[in-house]
């Protein structure tokens, strides 16, 4: 079959299982042919080799059973960085770019900055910030060694040298350190949330997604402990669920964050809470 016929037949096959059948098909065919979508449009009559046809057929079969496109191609773009992703990492989401935009705007005057990205996964947040600020000192942590290995590969691939990687259960490996920015997209889905039964999340690591009965366990731990690891006027910046705005604000207030900023993502969903603390406030509270 040629490119045009292959696209048509595969789109039909995926229609029952994917709401983005045509796009999925194009991405997977580009992956097999190692080309971009302009090539598909320019050469509709070009025939696939038997090997290419077989590889493509196998990918479409796996997509039919729900495997995310990013796991099939092994990559996903985030902040214009093509990142390797594997089933050990969350697939980076566009809404997480809201956190990057906030950091770039809020700290645009800052020449030096010590940042930690907690639960870095593929390295998306740490590497995007590092790419924008090569002079900043960035630490990226995760509890999963497999995820950290992927993040390290992504740093090497993009020749990003200002990120240090550490295995850590939240702040455990950071004792005695202090940061200007603590940033995280922690797990925040409630156990038993029906969304876990549909789409890509079925294939992503549970440890990336699920955080106790209300989805708030990890947000609570991080907001409670962050003060110990923030410099004076340091910021904690967290991604959270679209429906967790009030609960996350309460956690920040309970941990003495006085200046609290909340942001929505591009579709207008509440997604990010950031708070600033001074060490005086922390000292007062703990003395
Ligand atoms: C929602 S994913 C975010 C991944 C990446 N930062 C992103 O935005 O694409 C949460 C990440 O936190 C990590 N994680 C879960 N529990 C953790 C813990 N107790 N300590 C450190 N990292 C943890 C997971 O392995 C996962 O990589």
Keywords:
alpha/beta; two-stranded antiparallel ribbon; Rossmann fold; Helicase, Ruva Protein, domain 3; 9 strands; disordered C terminus; 2 domains; elongated; 40% helix
Structure report:
With 287 residues, the chain is an alpha/beta fold. It folds into two domains: 3-66, Orthogonal Bundle (Helicase, Ruva Protein, domain 3), CATH 1.10.8; 89-286, Rossmann fold. It is built from twelve helices and nine strands. Helix 1 (3-14) crosses helix 2 (21-33) and helix 1 runs parallel beside helix 4 (50-64). It is elongated. It binds S-adenosylmethionine. S-adenosylmethionine (SAM) binds next to helix 7, strand 4 and helix 9.
Query: According to CATH, what is the class of the largest domain?
Result: Alpha Beta
- The total strand number stands at 9
What profile does the largest beta sheet have?
Answer: 7 strands, mixed
N-C termini distance: 74 Å
Mean pLDDT rating: 95
Cα Rg: 21 Å
Percentage beta strand:
15-25%
Name the overall outline: elongated
Helix/strand structural class: alpha/beta
Q: Which percent bin holds the helix content?
A: 40-55%
The domain count comes to: 2
Write down the secondary-structure element order: HHHHHEEHEHEHEEHHEHEEH
The CATH homologous superfamily of the largest domain corresponds to Vaccinia Virus protein VP39
CATH architectural grouping of the largest domain: 3-Layer(aba) Sandwich
Q: Would you give the CATH topology of the largest domain? A: Rossmann fold
Question: Low-confidence segments, ≥5 residues, pLDDT <50?
Answer: 281-287
Biggest β-sheet: strands ordered side by side in the sheet: 5-4-3-6-7-9-8
**What small ligands are held by the chains?**
S-adenosylmethionine
């Amino acid at each position: 079959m040629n490119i045009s016929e292959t696209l048509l037949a595969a789109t039909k096959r995926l229609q029952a299982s994917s709401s983005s059948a045509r796009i999925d098909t194009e991405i997977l065919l580009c992956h097999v042919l190692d080309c971009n979508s302009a090539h598909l449009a320019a050469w509709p009559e070009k025939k696939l080799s038997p090997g290419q046809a077989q590889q493509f057929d196998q990918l479409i079969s796996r997509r039919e059973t729900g495997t995310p496109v990013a796991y099939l191609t092994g990559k996903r773009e985030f902040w214009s960085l093509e990142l390797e992703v594997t089933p050990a990492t969350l697939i980076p989401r566009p809404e997480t770019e809201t956190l990057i935009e906030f950091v770039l705007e809020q700290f645009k005057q800052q020449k030096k900055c010590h940042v930690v990205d907690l639960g870095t996964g593929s390295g998306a947040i740490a590497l995007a910030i590092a790419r924008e600020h090569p002079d900043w000192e960035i630490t990226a942590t995760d509890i999963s060694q497999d995820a950290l290995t992927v993040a390290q590969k992504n740093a090497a691939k993009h020749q990003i040298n200002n990120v240090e990687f550490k295995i850590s259960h939240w702040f455990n490996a950071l004792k005695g350190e202090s940061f200007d920015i603590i940033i995280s997209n922690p797990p925040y889905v409630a156990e038993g949330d029906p969304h876990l039964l549909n789409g890509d999340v079925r294939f992503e690591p549970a440890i990336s997604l699920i955080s106790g009965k209300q989805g708030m366990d990890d947000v609570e731990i991080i907001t409670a402990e962050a003060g110990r690891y923030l410099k004076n006027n340091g910021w904690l910046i967290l991604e959270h669920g679209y429906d967790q705005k009030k609960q996350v604000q309460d956690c920040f207030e309970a941990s003495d964050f006085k200046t609290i900023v909340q942001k929505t993502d591009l579709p207008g969903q509440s997604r990010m809470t950031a708070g600033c603390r001074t060490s005086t406030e922390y000292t007062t509270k703990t003395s």
